[in-house]
Amino acid sequence: MNSPQNSESLRVRAVLADDERLMREQLRARLNEVWPDLEIVAEAKNGLEAVELVRQHRPDLVFLDIRMPGLTGIDAARQIAQMGGGDDVPEGEDWLVPEIVFITAYDQYAVEAFEQGVADYVLKPAERERLAVTVQRIKKRLALRDGSAKEEAGSGNAAAAPLQQLLHKLSAQLNPGAAPKYLQWIQATVGQAIQMIPVEDVLFFISDEKYTRVQTARVEALIRKPIKELVDELDPALFWQVHRSTLVNARAIDGITRDFRGRQMIGVKGLTEKLEVSRSYTQLFKGM
Question: Partner of 208 at 20 to 30 A CA spacing, among 20, 86, 104, 167?
Answer without folding.
Answer: 167
